[in-house]
Amino acid sequence: MNIEIIFQNSDFAIFDKPSRMSFHSEDGAGFVVQATELLNAEQLFSVHRLDKMTSGLIILAKSSEVANKLSKLFETRQIEKFYLAVSLRKPKKKQGWIKADMAQARRGSYKLVSTMENPAITQFVSCALRVHERLFLIKPHTGKTHQIRVALKSLGSPIAGDERYAFSEDALKEERGYLHAYALRFVYNEQEYSFICNPTFGERFLNATCEDALTHYGSPWNFFK
Q: What distance lies between CA 169 and its chain's CA centroid?
């Protein structure tokens, strides 16, 4: 599992995190430690995170001052994030919004509840892939723990390979959890940045049918107005 540097400047770096790599160190050196070593830096500062199963784009700041700036951009929803996911179950609807509060469930999981006091807000479109496969392009408008994973489960379409929210027997057969941080777009210090990173691991992402669909989703921001 190798981390790839997508971009860096004097303030921050953007990486492609592999699936199955912990963000913080657990059994071995986690993503932040390995990214710091890769840049030969003294310290890097996290401003958002990805679950262990999730691959794709992630930003690390090179100073605490920059981390504060970027964190505020995330908090005020000025950094747009777009994700890809594959499910093996047909959704209740093919596109739209999922808005609801989230509450803790058992064993570290979360669930949607019927209230709207501080809702998780998720927007998505989707398309059919091969038999029983569906690709989702997702834009979360909030940044809650397990938000996308819980949102897709609520549609009846848990993410393939998600050992927490999918049907466990099916999930264990998969190479990976099929959630990928696909694109970022934001303005920082009056300069606009946009990044797209295609998945590099997992047969359900890398087959010709999915690759054709990704060509269609090549400018993900155009699908969410």
A: 23
